[in-house]
Amino acid sequence: MIYIITGPSGVGKNTIIEAMSTDLDFYFSVSHTTRPQREGEVDGKDYYFISNDEFNSLINDDLMIEYEQYGGFCYGTSKKELLKESNIILLDLEVNGATKLLSQNDDFIGIFIDIDDNELINRLKNRGHDNDFINKRMKLATQQREKKSQYQYHVDNVDINTSVNHILDIIYSLEES
Questions:
Q1: Alpha-carbon distance 25 to 27, whole Å?
Q2: SS (HEC) of the chain
Q3: Is the pTM of this model over 0.70?
Q4: Which sequence spans correspond to the domains of the chain?
Q5: What is the pLDDT at residue 127?
Q6: pLDDT tens by residue, 92-150
Q7: What count of other Cβ atoms lies within 10 Å of the Cβ of residue 131?
Q8: Model pLDDT for residues 55-69, shown as the tens digit of each residue
Q9: Are the beta carbons of 28 and 81 closer than 8 angstroms?
Q10: Which of 14, 139, 16, 126 is nearest to 71 (CA)?
Q11: Does residue 9 carry a pLDDT above 90?
Q12: Which homologous superfamily is 30-85 in?
């Protein structure tokens, strides 16, 4: 089964996925991006950090299952990431790319993660973003939330442990059926 975890930037997708790794055996699909590598990120673990030319080559060679531009950078998932030998594959995707992928293929399970606006603003501030950036991200979050109904499951990330357990319950129930 292939699960798509998505939601606005800052809702806790990465934290949830990392916390799930102690309770669930899955393959985490690593996306490609043209954005600069941040301090503490590991190439090949967090993202494959590549140039615009390399990204465009992947697209032109039809090697990407989905890709989007977000925040001035390109993000995408290569087809080879979905060929890994694992019963469960998790994708952490940007909302537009995830929505497109879900609309094209019934084999994917979409889980939309969200949080309260005040908490989202606090998280973006804690990442060191200025008010102009935060306002743009909040406007984008509103647009992304309009697509929430296109996902099979919704999780409000009020508490990390509750959110992890909710997603694990979803996965376990689908894996058993």
A1: 7
A2: CEEEEECCCCCCHHHHHHHHCCCCCCEEECCEECCCCCCCCCECCCEEECCHHHHHHHHHCCCEEEEEEECCEEEEEEHHHHHCCCCCEEEECCHHHHHHHHHHCCCEEEEEEECCHHHHHHHHHHCCCCHHHHHHHHHHHHHHHCCHHHCCEEEECCCHHHHHHHHHHHHHHHHHC
A3: yes
A4: 1-26+87-177, 30-85
A5: 85
A6: 998 988 998 999 888 899 999 999 999 999 988 988 889 999 999 999 999 999 999 99
A7: 10
A8: 999 999 999 999 988
A9: no
A10: 139
A11: no
A12: Guanylate Kinase phosphate binding domain (3.30.63.10)
Cβ neighbours, 10 Å, residue 28 = 21
84-118: buried (b, 16+ CB within 10 Å) or exposed (e) per residue?
eeeebbbbbbbbbbbbbbbeeeeebbbbbbbbeee
Q: Residue 87 corresponds to which tokens in the numbers above? A: 């019963």
Q: Hey, which of 5-14, 85-94, 145-154 has the most confident mean pLDDT?
A: 145-154
Fold of 1-26+87-177: Rossmann fold (3.40.50)
pLDDT band with cut points at 50, 70 and 90 for residue 8: very high
